[in-house]
Amino acid sequence: MAAKRIAVVGGGPGGLYFAALMKQLDPAHDVTVWERDAPDVTFGFGVVFSDETLGGIENADPEFADTMARRFARWTDIDIHHRGESHTVGGQGFAAMSRKELLGLLQQRCRDLGVVVHFSTPAPDAGLLCASYDLVVGADGVNSLVRQSFSDVFRPALDRRHNKYMWLGTDLVFEAFQFFIKDTEWGTMQVHGYPYSDSGSTFIVEMHEDVWRRAGFDTGEEFPPGASDDRAVERIRELFAEELAGHQVFANNSKWLSFTTVRNERWHHGNLVLVGDAAHTAHFSIGSGTKLAMEDSLALAACLHEHRDVETALTAYEAERRPVVESTQRAAQASLEWFENIGMYAGQEPTRFCFNLLTRSRRITYDNLRTRDSDFADRVDAAFAASQGLAEVAPAMFQPFRLGSLELKNRVIVSPMDMYSAVDGVPGDFHLVHLGSKAMGGAGLVMTEMVCVSPEGRITPGCTGLWTDEQRDSWARIVSFVHSRSTARIGLQLGHSGRKGSTRLMWEGMDEPLPDGNWETVGPSALPYGPGSPVPRALDRDDMDRIKAEFVAAARRGATAGFDLLELHCAHGYLLSSFLSPIANQRTDSYGGSVENRLRFPLEVFDAVRAVWPAERPMIVRISATDWVPDGNTEHDAVEIARAFTAHGADAIDVSTGQVTADERPAYGRSYQTPFADRIRHEVPGAAVIAVGAIASYDDVNSILLAGRADLCALGRTHLYDPHWTLHAAAEQNYRGADWPVQYRAGSRKPPSARTDAVRPRLSLLRADTPDRNVHLRWTPHRSGVAQSVNIG
Description:
Elements: E1 5-9, H1 13-25, E2 30-34, E3 46-49, H2 51-60, H3 62-69, E4 73-75, E5 78-82, E6 85-89, E7 94-98, H4 99-113, E8 116-118, H5 126-132, E9 135-138, H6 145-149, H7 151-154, E10 156-170, E11 177-184, E12 187-195, E13 201-208, H8 209-214, H9 230-239, H10 241-244, E14 249-250, E15 257-264, E16 268-269, E17 272-274, H11 289-306, H12 310-340, H13 350-358, H14 366-372, H15 374-387, E18 401-403, E19 406-408, E20 412-414, H16 429-440, E21 445-452, H17 469-485, E22 489-495, H18 506-509, E23 522-523, E24 537-538, H19 541-561, E25 565-570, H20 575-580, H21 595-612, E26 619-624, H22 635-647, E27 652-656, H23 674-683, E28 688-692, H24 698-707, E29 712-715, H25 717-721, H26 725-732, E30 760-763, E31 779-782
Parallel strand pairs: 1-2, 1-9, 2-8, 5-11, 9-17, 20-21, 20-29, 21-22, 22-25, 23-24, 25-26, 26-27, 27-28, 28-29
Antiparallel strand pairs: 3-7, 4-7, 5-6, 10-13, 10-14, 10-15, 11-12, 12-13, 16-17, 18-19, 30-31
Helix pairs in contact: 1-4, 1-11, 2-3, 2-11, 11-12, 14-15, 16-17, 17-19, 19-21, 21-22, 22-23
Protein name: Bifunctional salicylyl-CoA 5-hydroxylase/oxidoreductase
Pfam families: FAD_binding_3, Oxidored_FMN
Organism: Lentzea alba
């Protein structure tokens, strides 16, 4: 790229580092930085880096990296203090330094390279800068004026969170990363602490806003810029006197804040681009703010160096960087939500609590921790077995579980998956092979697809049913095979399609109406599922009685067929689910309105089915814990719904989400539905909880179970990919207690091979000779084994 005039708004780590990188790549670049504060003004205390980020900085600028390294505080342990016990987990690998020192080093680096920096100077209007410069970089933080100037283009979403926190420092030099979890009369408070030099540590105090108010921190007083809340600081000194052990805490513009998660639909416009907190934020509990900003700068400089024109470079930057940032934000969101709900876990056994805390973001897992600290992993395994009253210590997924009166050999469930392959509702040889292979694959419980209670209750013409004796007898053949050829149990999922019925087979157009041969759809209200969906007929009392009777008749046939368990399908927008959702149910009678009213018909069906289902066989319920749309059901409604079904005798709640409306906007990600199961498990005693959704590895399953987020895990597509997934998971973990079919035992010992982990993004700064500089910056995906050191979260 030819020499450019570059304007950088914001003199924080991201802005200064980008300016320095561009001058290194080509000294002819004219780079100017505007910073509204003085050079010696900064807020906060220490900043944390992962070894991976430091490797990128070293490759890009060895001189600067060496200067940083001489000032680092390094440590490898995490100490968790909870309920009078302290637990240490090793093998982590952290580096931190004073934020003020980092800014000083970057300022000096910019001076040495010839970057012009205007301190104590607000930047000119962003529009004027764009007209005067070849490139404008908005690096002006979470309250970015650059972003606000073009908000109609960037379309920011600002999510203010529920916890209050205050950033402080202390002269107590910690030897490791510290989590102090303090139970007070007002609720749970926590401290995140870590050393950043040989003379000080960061000391972040955090608590839910409700706890903050009860503790009297809400004075209504406003503090001017640069001023600290001295009253609150003094109170914190008193509250955490034991943790501070006679040492002081120091303020630096320290006042109560609420974290805001920033997301933008776009990061660039014309010759203007956002980096760091102006573009995105990630909660401090995974230590990623400065890290993300400096990695943004690396990636942006690389793209500008590699592409001839600015627009192409900015497009490439956003395409490369966005997936990495969004992945980090998902992890940060999980972490911040965990801390918002920390009081929910306060009663956990200490070892489980520590494991739960460490794996809260779903990036660190059981396998990660075992690699880093096998002794701690052994303690986690032993604590789990003891909590379950089990004599044998084994992988959590292979520990037995009693669901009602049904004994399951392990905690793996083959999730219900519609196959759309029946003829007139009759399951055939396909279903025998499909379900039989999954049962022989080692899972403790195999679930049928949604079995429909009537022809009008089908989703598609290919759905199975239980409204005839012929269907019952065909199901009995499949159940008999499972019982005779495996030690798995088999469960029946019963449901009615409601307003999502009369559609094409999935591979012909999911949720699209049939071109011909349609049947009437019904629902609680005359509201279609989505654009193009038929308008359902609103059910009256006679209709509800008829459908309830159809559920009862189907349940009787299922019992005769020999199913071990029955699941009532109240999720995914089908009939009973649509009664539960305020999006689909807008009735004005006693079956609509409040959550209690919306529960009325699903509970009537549950009670009627429970009355005819054999008492010794468990009955469970699948729910959608959130509708993923405004004004729909939330996790709070899910708790009430789960509590109601549990009170009526449900042995387990199978926690899924969404599919209630075509307008949904799910927050997809690794194990993204598990937090809903976690909340129900901790707030609704009396029923087991099943987690489902983007659980793809045995490591995920073990991590969920060991942390206490669920009692069982259901996996669907994983079993489509590998019908013998559970047996293979046993072999991978060298667990010899799995129940291999005698015909397959010769393959039960997997030969040694390299373990393959999921691809994860990694910053790799590669050198290559160029005419001007021996520097080449690039983002590359990296496939490797378990990382030897990563930052917590």
